[in-house]
Amino acid sequence: MYRPNFYESTCLRCSEIVYQVDRVGPLKDFTFFHSGCFKCKRCGTKLTLKTYYNNQHNQDDKEVYCCSHVPKSGPGHFDQTSVGIRQALNVPKSTNYVNEQIRGHRNDSIDGQQRLGTPNGYNNGGREGNTPPQNDPDYKYGRFDASALHIAHALKQTEIQKAYDKPREKPIDYYLARDEQAKLEMKHRKEEDDLYRKFARKREEEDRRMQSEIQDEWERELQRLAHKFEKELTTSRRSREDQNILTLKHEQQKEDLEKNMTIRKTKKKESLTRKLLEHERSETAALVDRQSSEMLELISVRRSEYMQSESIFLDDDINETVVAMEYPLVAPKPAPPALSKFQVYNDPVEFQDVDQIAITVAQEDQKTFTDLVRQLVGRCTSDIEKARTIFRWITVKNLNTMTFDDNLRGDTPMGLLRGIKYGTESYHVLFKRLCSYAGLHCVVIKGYSKSAGYQPGVKFQDSRFRNSWNAVYVAGAWRFVQCNWGARHLVNAKEAPKTGKGKNDSLRYEYDDHYFLTDPREFIYEFFPLQEEWQLLKRPITLTEFENLPFVRSLFFRYGLHFADDGYGAVVYTDDTGAATVRIAMPSDMQGCLIFHYNLKFYDSDEDSFDGVSLKRFVMQSVISNVVAFRVHAPCSGAFLLDIFANAVTPQEYLTGEPMKFKSVCKFKICCEELQTVMVPLPDCASGEWGPTKATRLFGLIPITHPEPLIFAGRAIELQFRMSRPLTDFMATLHKNGIEEKKLSKYVQQAILDDMITFNISFPEEGQYGLDIYTREVGSVSHNNNSSTEKHLLTHCCKYLINSSKRN
């Protein structure tokens, strides 16, 4: 699901550009704030998404206030907006249709905000079953006044989603004959054949030259050894035994020379191959550029000729005031897009039909690019749809499972895919070529990327993280496409291939829509072009700034996450107690389904324990409201790597108890330069977040007595929860460093009365304890008296950190 993410969005307070990771919003009328500027306009109190207020009596006032200073209307004051609210509130509740165009059918439980921009919402095109029949006598028009404040936000969002509305064009078959395009392809194929023959001749010449150089060097070294041997024999009188020793030494030197020359020959050949391959790729790219320009020119000329006599649009009732944006004959200069990805499309479901075309076409092998592209874009009616089908065709192809004939031509679609699999071709060249056959401008961009093997804090000083990607001109602007990352990713260490498997087996093919038409303000966190103008930003950043940006992955943006505090960079420094905190804010509609996890290890090694204790026990994860916090306490000075994972699951999926697969959303280098306090690990509880938030979110278990994850108690404590849905078989376990769990079991008691569950805990001694709570829903299977088995079958609900002291 996509959310508003506007280009060049500026902070309402300071008017400076707001970056994704430092952004609060969108708020009223899609305004944004820096997290540091998100303060009360009157008193400067720092606000959160739970404590801010808008002026409800002035639609033009977009500022934020605290509860004490938010403008309030006097008694008896009604303005036009207030009347609109009253009209909305006075809607008879007996009707079955309550503002269907905003909320949908009354049986749906999703709120208006979720409706907009979700697969289940109203942007999917088809609305059967959601809009009431207009001839229904119970249906009333105008039940909700448009000025009602609680729907004004939704109406504004609908307007923005329609910002890009281009008339549908006729497919390419209308204005360009297949045979004419195929003829140009055959001409290009001949040029490629000539170029490949040139490459082959060059390789043979260079190989002969290298062989000759190696042979000459070999002979010179042999002569040097022979001369040295003869000289040693004749310079002094030697016994037969000495002569034999000298002869054996000479033979050994010859063997060593042969081995060294073989190694040098291999290295020289590898170096020559890399040099030739780089040269060949450069010449091939230049040829593809020229051929792409020729293909684009042919398509543009035929399109213009057709438009002189016929309408290019499929819709006959095109409003004359709607001026279609003519696709440019010459590729425009790079510039920031005027519309964001969200404004162009807000959900991949919008491409359901064209995606299916790509998936169907991918089931067969095409011999020519003309045939392939005609099958892909033959029914596409916009430049976006054309780019989409090409992108999805590429991302559908799983090269791990594909087999290729050895006699495939390199200048065919399948030949290029074979080249990509074995490293001689690239996705970005294939995408550029296919775009030219579809009449789309496309460029290859080179630069750095935070790709596999990169860690936060690493400097880009060599070619290790060099990468290439595309920009395609659609929807009136240049937009980024990364087919390689959109189609596949490297598996993590736990999923790494077993010994004996090839490099390609470490790649998992999994479609990621984030890398199709990615917003520049999100793309810049992972990719830095060598040419500044191809950042597509109004204010480009430097390489140093790119290195210092937080290391975030595509899921960070797909889940709509942002950092809750100012100043996060790739490296986070602890205070003198070894403490550092990373706080991530979730959008309101994701709070109920996002689950986070983390991993901590030493930065320069894979070691994840300190003095036999897992480093995870030096991190406290908690969730309060819409913010998840990771509080790191370094056990020693040095550098650590904090990897934060997330997954979106429903309560039903979580309650099955099946293992969940988390994916990385961001990483940080945690640096502890000086440690003045010895840190003690947290009690050995179940992994995951501390506090009762998870219990409420996934189990409907509401804390009555202790809503915070950290509790300060005396020698005993009582915890109470209210069940909002039936749960059974509760169990709590107490943990303390240095004491066995079994010895603490007698200090925990529980009781259920109606919908209340009460835990009574006493503590045998002062100190820090961890409390794990397990449960299951009514109807779950298990009746086993064995405590360990029962704990295994129950699902972890929540946990608390309790500091027991007589002083509390």
Strand order of the largest sheet: 10-7-6-5-11
Rg, please? 33 Å
Separation of the first and last Cα atoms? 47 Å
Profile the largest sheet.
Answer: 5 strands, antiparallel
Could you tell me the number of beta strands?
30
Class by SSE composition: alpha+beta
Question: Which descriptor suits the 3D outline?
Answer: globular
Beta-strand level of the residues, as a percent range? 15-25%
Q: Count of helical segments?
A: 20
Q: What proportion of the residues is helical, as a percent range?
A: 25-40%
- Runs in which pLDDT lies below 50 for 5 or more consecutive residues are 1-7, 74-162, 318-324, 489-509, 782-792
Global mean pLDDT: 78
General description of the model:
The protein has 808 residues and is α+β, with helices and mostly antiparallel strands. Among the domains are: 1-70, Cysteine Rich Protein (Ribbon), CATH 2.10.110; 178-312, no CATH class; 341-492 and 508-549, no CATH class; 684-781 and 791-807, Immunoglobulin-like (Sandwich), CATH 2.60.40. It is built from 20 helices and 30 strands. A five-stranded antiparallel beta sheet has the order 10-7-6-5-11. Strands 12, 14, 16, 21 and 22 form a five-stranded mixed beta sheet that branches. Strands 13-15-20-19 form a four-stranded antiparallel beta sheet, with no helix packed on it. β17 (609-610) and β18 (613-614) form a beta hairpin. The longest helix is centred in the middle third of the chain and has 70 residues, at 240-309. The two termini are 47 Å apart.
